């Protein structure tokens, strides 16, 4: 009768939990994570050891990769051949490993993401530096364990003379954890190790004097040291890594951007495709052509720029939108004593040194035993040579070798090993010279034994040996840094860094809409032209104010109620020429009855200047600009406005200027700014000009002797006037005539200081905007009427004007 099977009831939840934990630990320890001592994952260690066993060393011929993969699979790593070959290939790629451990012959892939050739085509051998990983392994310096089928033994860890974990880094995803250790410069690591040997209590900050930061095989630039310090102090951090770009000027004077290095682990081919797509989508502007001129000497990608493109803006756009700037997340996680743990920099260096100490102690003990064994044999041989005739006689008279051995041991008090060595001597070893050679060897072995015993007894001597070996490694393999580290800057590229600082026009309408249009929308016309329509068709709205600004400038928007609001030009959406615009309330928290009457554009907030305010009732005030440093979109009060009054004009003054105020009916007064003392934001101001009945102030200018003043009226009549025609008066007077106002001209609408090369923009009620060169406007006397500047349609009129300043 068959034996009854035993059924054990197990909860599914418990069984799944235990099975998954077993699987997770298997992945963590046996596949995905490196050992903290030799810095290798199991598959990497098995590849190197298998190649060492097979004699595929750096000074031996190449062997097929398939041969190596087959050996690794058959002996130590019973997993897929693709995984083994992938690990082998990666160790041979100079763009993946800072110091490749495999010397590959054939196609091992490229930085463009090209796949390596099949393993039957490529050939490999260990690189010279890989020999340092397995040095002295035959001297019982590390523990061995049975392989997967108990037919062979494999090392638990390699003895490694090099700090492989930090030198080449490591990346891997296990179950519930991951590691991402960046590569470093070997020379810097060894300098830090030598310092740590001399000063074991050294702080991480001291080690940073030697290890500047990661050193990627593809070069690039690390921005700032904050992420580096955080990574080394805690074992986790983020590094901002950029490609290396330079600006080259062609023979024709054009400027090109050259990509010379790219961030670590970035696929170059994908990067170029990404750039091309972003250019098509117009997220990156200013690029005319893109070509890859890379070769075996290095990366060279040429980005041809359009003539009007700013290279710095394009570079910032590339960093902002492409993988030319990446974030490397550092997680210095490795396995020690079978447990995964995150280590800081000093801990990893210390673990390596402790591993080297253990290896050197075991190697020294092994060498000492070998030396003592050889000294023991030499003692016996020298005894035999001192009694040569008697030894020969004993051997000749003995019945066999066993009897001879017994008699020699008895006669000369020898051990079995010594007696056997005497019997094994050849005739040529009986010469006098051979005796001298043995005596010299004995002397050297005794000296060697003394040195080895001193190493084991004196820890300082032990560390001296480790230091000397590290110095030798540095001499053989250290090289210059590939990755540069730039001082801390704003690594987060803002929108201001990637936007061209182009001239723009901001229009505000009577119904509370705001529009942003490129200045290039308005082509220059001679005076008397009709201009360009910039309002939606069939729209009764009116442009009340506008300003010529630039993309990155800050706009200060002053309202009729004396409040001021602040916004960046680029924060306003760019609209089409004939669109209605966007309600200004979407950008600013203005009240229903509030209207923007003045816009001032500033690239930066100046110091030691004043905002000079003018109201419709002729009230003036000046307030230091510093009081407007923290203007919000919700607004702050800039001037206290009296009943029935409203703010009409604001401009910047030095405190020592002369001001000319103009009224709607063509009057003007010139007075010195010193007549107006500085006041706070909430003050109301003082009288600037006395107004006649039915008149009001439309604005003012700062007197500039080298410029003229352009005056434009409601019906498009205008002229230029020399400022010298206005004599200085005391503030508060009635003033003098500035322009002859008639029913043909209509009221005065706008005034601006202008130079000969400037242009003005005139905006009409119906949305027409005309751009006129100033030199087309004649210079006339104060009492004259002016000439026609704008050809107006019926029921249309001028509502505002602004200046386009050009360099002389």
From TrEMBL:
It catalyses: ATP-dependent breakage, passage and rejoining of double-stranded DNA. Residues 428-490 form a coiled coil. InterPro entries: GyrA (IPR005743), GyrA/parC_rep (IPR006691), Gyrase/topoIV_suA_C (IPR035516), Topo_IIA-like_dom_sf (IPR013760), Topo_IIA_A/C_ab (IPR013758), Topo_IIA_A_a_sf (IPR013757), Topo_IIA_dom_A (IPR002205), Type_II_DNA_Topoisomerases (IPR050220). The active site is at residue 121. Keywords: ATP-binding, Coiled coil, Cytoplasm, DNA-binding, Isomerase, Nucleotide-binding, Topoisomerase. SMART domains: TOP4c. The keyword Ligase does not apply. Gene3D superfamilies: 3.30.1360.40, DNA gyrase/topoisomerase IV, subunit A, C-terminal (2.120.10.90), Topoisomerase II, domain 5 (3.90.199.10), Topoisomerase, domain 3 (1.10.268.10). Its EC number is 5.6.2.2. One of its GO terms (biological process) is DNA topological change. It is found in: Cytoplasm. Its main location: cytoplasm. GO terms for cellular component: chromosome; cytoplasm; DNA topoisomerase type II (double strand cut, ATP-hydrolyzing) complex. A motif (GyrA-box) lies at residues 525-531. Residues 33-498 form the Topo IIA-type catalytic domain. GO terms for molecular function: ATP binding; DNA binding; DNA negative supercoiling activity. Pfam families: DNA_gyraseA_C, DNA_topoisoIV. Belongs to the type II topoisomerase GyrA/ParC subunit family. Heterotetramer composed of ParC and ParE. Heterotetramer, composed of two GyrA and two GyrB chains. In the heterotetramer, GyrA contains the active site tyrosine that forms a transient covalent intermediate with DNA, while GyrB binds cofactors and catalyzes ATP hydrolysis. A type II topoisomerase that negatively supercoils closed circular double-stranded (ds) DNA in an ATP-dependent manner to modulate DNA topology and maintain chromosomes in an underwound state. Negative supercoiling favors strand separation, and DNA replication, transcription, recombination and repair, all of which involve strand separation. Also able to catalyze the interconversion of other topological isomers of dsDNA rings, including catenanes and knotted rings. Type II topoisomerases break and join 2 DNA strands simultaneously in an ATP-dependent manner. Few gyrases are as efficient as E.coli at forming negative supercoils. Not all organisms have 2 type II topoisomerases; in organisms with a single type II topoisomerase this enzyme also has to decatenate newly replicated chromosomes. This is DNA gyrase subunit A. It comes from Dictyoglomus turgidum (strain DSM 6724 / Z-1310). The lineage of its organism: Bacteria, Pseudomonadati, Dictyoglomota, Dictyoglomia, Dictyoglomales. The gene is gyrA.
